[in-house]
């Protein structure tokens, strides 16, 4: 049997070409029946639904179908017929079945349905075979495609920023060192520190925490750019919202101010959510039914609502007036905690919220300083059930103010000479943000743990697969 004439199950389920000969390949979800007839539910991952293969046992021997058990991989030739059974439009009357790979029912880990998500994380190599992960992975694909489509349709250019970086100035989180030096006996300087001049790049390097700084360089030439790549943070935050390796989308736009930046973020997020509603309806319906009955209505709410926009200072006033008991005390100047963001989004406004103008002391060096001397033009977008999905800002485009801030924060100016030069030569007002890809996938799928929306999660003490 060749694979050239294979039809995908997604196409077959929409077909009304009854009587045509077809050829399909996939993995057996279940097999049931009796001595006369065998029913095989086959899935090829193209769609959440299985196709039913009917094997008339007068045409097959038990021996031929012995290997057709849950988890096995088979090819089927047969005729497409209208299904007499409820809930499925068509089925296949099999004429030939070939077993590619068996799956021993005694040891196949997905023999039964209904495993916990925690258990499935331990078999990340097999979990794409479940309905849940099939749905999540198809939605993840659709969202990645939608990201590129949105920016391409709106005149942005996709920039590939480096994964290995020589600057650790972004300050977005602890970094993973990249080195070819012998960890056991690295070359040392006279003062006992590691001599990175002998390392591969002749200096200390790390995995990037963000493509923003390099993205800004490109925006100072191409005007509208975005990056979409893996980012790495070595924080030991073992939460349902954090990964050590995650994907981030970072648009950067010359001539945009903070209001333009908020408009872009809101339009982009609504586009992504709406794209999922339109293109991932089957998978969303499944997740809505199995995990979260409010999922679809929550997604529609986001598309239809206008995001609430207010300053950090106003948010602190609301929190102080709330009469709510918080674990972390609220006062102006604190970094808002998940519980505070949750209150604002889920109790007070009941829709997505964009907070702006944060205290200068809790935000990155590159954010545009406000006239008040106390706040910067930062913005965080907060979503129900997720918290922060986007962090961004208008950037400081004034060379002297930026240098002063770099010095005040004790950042090595010489590591950033190239970044600072963009403020010396043809500086321009500009703004951008970072969307955590897995955070938006969490929101769109309604899953509650970030480990369940990336194929192979990287978290503290976990890099098995
Ligand atoms: O707020 P962050 O740290 O912002 C930046 O990195 C900026 N350079 C972005 C920019 O302005 N271009 O991260 C941006 C987003 C967060 O809002 C969150 O959604 C996600 O990245 N994020 C994480 N997602 C998963 N695991 C982690 N450890 C994350 N840290 C941040
Ligand atoms: Mg942030």
Protein architecture, described:
This protein has 465 residues and is an alpha+beta fold. 28% of the residues lie in helices and 24% in strands. It contains twelve helices and 16 strands. It has helices at 9-12, 117-122, 131-153, 212-222, 258-279, 281-290, 295-304, 312-321, 338-349, 399-408, 417-421, 437-445; strands at 21-33, 37-43, 51-56, 73-82, 90-101, 157-158, 164-165, 177-178, 205-207, 224-232, 245-254, 308-311, 353-359, 375-383, 387-394, 430-436. An eight-stranded mixed β-sheet has the order 6-10-11-16-15-14-13-12, sandwiched between helices. It has a five-stranded mixed barrel with strand order 1-2-3-5-4. Strands 7-9-8 form a three-stranded antiparallel β-sheet, with no helix packed on it. It is elongated. The two termini are 32 Å apart. The model has no long low-confidence stretch (mean pLDDT 96). The structure holds 4-amino-1,4-dioxobutan-2-aminium adenosine-5'-monophosphate and magnesium ion. Residues 172, 210, 212, 233, 242-243, 246, 248, 250, 388-392, 432-434, 436, 438-439 line the site of 4-amino-1,4-dioxobutan-2-aminium adenosine-5'-monophosphate.
Termini separation comes to 32 Å
Categorize the overall geometry: elongated
Kindly name the structural category. alpha+beta
Nearest-angstrom radius of gyration?
27 Å
Strand-helix topology:
Elements: H1 9-12, E1 21-33, E2 37-43, E3 51-56, E4 73-82, E5 90-101, H2 117-122, H3 131-153, E6 157-158, E7 164-165, E8 177-178, E9 205-207, H4 212-222, E10 224-232, E11 245-254, H5 258-279, H6 281-290, H7 295-304, E12 308-311, H8 312-321, H9 338-349, E13 353-359, E14 375-383, E15 387-394, H10 399-408, H11 417-421, E16 430-436, H12 437-445
Parallel strand pairs: 3-5, 6-10, 12-13
Antiparallel strand pairs: 1-2, 1-4, 2-3, 4-5, 7-9, 8-9, 10-11, 11-16, 13-14, 14-15, 15-16
Helix pairs in contact: 3-5, 3-6, 3-12, 5-7
The structure holds 4-amino-1,4-dioxobutan-2-aminium adenosine-5'-monophosphate and magnesium ion (MG).
């Amino acid at each position: 049997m060749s694979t050239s004439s294979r039809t995908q199950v997604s196409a077959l389920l929409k077909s009304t070409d009854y009587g045509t000969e077809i050829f399909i390949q996939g993995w057996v979800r279940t097999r049931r029946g009796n001595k006369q007839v065998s029913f095989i539910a086959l899935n090829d991952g193209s769609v959440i639904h299985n196709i039913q293969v009917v094997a008339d046992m007068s045409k097959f021997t038990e021996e031929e179908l012995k290997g057709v058990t849950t988890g096995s991989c088979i090819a089927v030739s047969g005729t497409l017929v209208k299904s007499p059974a409820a809930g499925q439009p068509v089925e296949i009357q099999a004429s030939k079945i070939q077993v590619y790979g068996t799956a021993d029912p005694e040891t196949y880990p997905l023999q039964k349905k209904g495993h916990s998500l925690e258990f499935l994380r331990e078999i990340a190599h097999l979990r794409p075979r479940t309905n849940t992960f099939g749905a999540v992975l198809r939605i993840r694909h659709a969202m990645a495609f939608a990201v590129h489509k949105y920016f391409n349709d709106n005149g942005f250019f996709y920039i590939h920023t480096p994964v290995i970086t020589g600057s650790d100035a972004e300050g977005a989180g602890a970094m993973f060192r990249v080195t070819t030096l012998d960890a056991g006996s690295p070359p040392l300087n006279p003062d006992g520190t590691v001599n990175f001049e002998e390392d591969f790049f002749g200096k200390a390097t790390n995995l990037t925490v963000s493509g923003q700084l390099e993205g800004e360089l490109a925006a100072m030439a191409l005007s509208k750019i975005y990056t979409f790549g893996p980012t790495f943070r070595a924080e030991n935050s073992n939460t349902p919202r954090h990964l050590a390796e995650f994907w981030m989308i970072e648009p950067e736009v010359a001539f945009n101010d903070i209001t333009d930046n908020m408009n872009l973020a809101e339009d982009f997020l609504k586009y992504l959510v709406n794209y999922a509603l339109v293109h991932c309806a089957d998978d969303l319906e499944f997740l809505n039914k199995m995990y979260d009955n409010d999922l679809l209505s929550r997604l529609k709410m986001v598309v239809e609502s206008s995001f609430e926009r207010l300053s950090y200072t106003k948010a602190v006033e609301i929190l102080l007036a709330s009469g709510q008991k918080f674990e972390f005390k609220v006062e102006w100047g604190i970094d808002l905690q998940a519980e505070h963001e949750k209150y604002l989004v889920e109790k007070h406004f009941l829709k997505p919220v964009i907070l702006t103008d944060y205290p200068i002391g809790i935000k990155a060096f590159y954010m545009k300083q406000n006239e008040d001397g106390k706040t910067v033009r930062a913005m965080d977008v907060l979503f129900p059930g997720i918290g922060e999905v986007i962090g961004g800002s208008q950037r400081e485009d004034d060379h002297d103010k930026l240098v002063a801030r770099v010095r005040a924060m004790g950042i090595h100016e010489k590591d950033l000479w190239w970044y600072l030069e963009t403020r010396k030569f043809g500086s321009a007002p500009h703004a951008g943000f970072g969307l955590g890809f897995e955070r938006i996938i969490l929101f769109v799928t309604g899953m509650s743990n970030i480990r369940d929306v990336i194929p192979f999660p990287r978290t503290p003490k976990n890099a098995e697969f």
